[in-house]
Amino acid sequence: MDLFSTPKPAEDKALSVTQLLRRMKNLLEAQVGEVWVEGEVSNLKKQGSGHWYFSLKDAGAQIQCAMFGARKRPGADALEDGAKVRVFAEASVYEARGQLQIIVQKAERAGAGDLQARFEALKRKLHAEGLFDADRKQPIPAFPQTIGIITSASGAALQDILNVLTRRAPWVRPVLFPVRVQGRGAEIEIATAIEQMGRPEAFGHPRCDVLIVGRGGGSIEDLWNFNEEVVARAIAACPIPIISAVGHEIDFTIADFVADLRAPTPSAAAELAVADGAELLERLMQLRRRLERRTRERLNQARQDLDALKRGVMRRDAERLLREPVMRLDGSRARVTSAVAKSLETAAARLNEARALHKAHHPARVLDRRIEHLSHLRLRLERAPSEATTQRTSQLERLRGLLRALGPESAFQRGFSITMGPDGKIVRSVSALKSGDLIKTRFSDGETTSRVES
Length: 454
Hints:
This protein is α/β, with parallel strands linked by helices and 454 residues long. The chain has helices at 17-31, 114-128, 156-168, 186-198, 200-203, 229-237, 254-258, 266-273, 277-311, 313-360, 363-406, 408-413; strands spanning 34-46, 52-57, 62-67, 83-94, 99-112, 146-151, 173-178, 210-215, 242-246, 261-262, 418-420, 438-443, 446-451. The longest helix is centred in the last third of the chain and has 48 residues, at 313-360.
């Protein structure tokens, strides 16, 4: 057979679609068979029958996967949205849809997927900053009057929330802030809506008592806008309590950890936000019936007590019955009167004491004492110079007398004289002089000059 020749058209009967897909399936299972495939799990669905369905993808393509009896398969716990896994599977075709798929026999982790890694990194960062701490979360008001809803205007989540609010609390006013909840840039719309609803007066919005932020279920990619940091920080900074309602019960996002309260679904968020009107009404009716019953019991008991008094002592001697209470009342009146009188006396004494103290410290009295003190100081100041002069004069006279008694003048008065040599020094010995020296002799009344002859 010539490999390069053009094949002749088949003249036998055409294949049906089922026959073609079955032939393709057999060829695929024979040629590809069982292989190891690595990729990121997306859109995982766990059916009640125990079979799991998901997509396995990489940067360039994706393929549908089925794991039958998944819980009994090894490595099933490794399968979660965003997880990067290696699966051992058989290539096949789903004939009913003409869809290429692989039948997974077992799975194992191959490292976290890109989205899961980003999720965990942001979760660790915000947790370290304290954005998940319970003490910073605000309480949800018990009876809100206005509830803000930040979600898609066309999504099923909005209708679920409105249905619950209408059924449970028809008096509550819902306020919708429509945003995109999926796709590039949706996180900016969500964060902006939260910021504006948190400051309603600045943007002309009604003030809400609580906000519900969320959307319906989907894959990790569909919910990813609620895992962005800008949304988390907007929730943390909002002064109004926020209930997050993103996806289904098994879905967790960063917004759930930061919000003041996490609801498993949008419907559950509405139920957590408002009390059930029917339950409140039933509770009020129960309280009313209990109050009426207790009031009737108290009235009946009081009526019975009054009838017993009328039949007993009061009928025989009402004055004697009241005698002791009247005496107690008189005693109490006397004690109160005495106590009031003592209190008034004590107050009067304190008032007189305060008045005397005030009088003693009156500015006029203080000024008089200061003037008297200044006058005394002035007299002391005036006497101080003369007393000091007299004291110094007496001391000088004593020193002068002492000088006269002990100084050279007293020696002169007694007939002594002082001789000084040519050099002006006092001559204390004859040996200090020689013939021809001029000497001076000082007497009490003057001096003389002499020459030494011998």
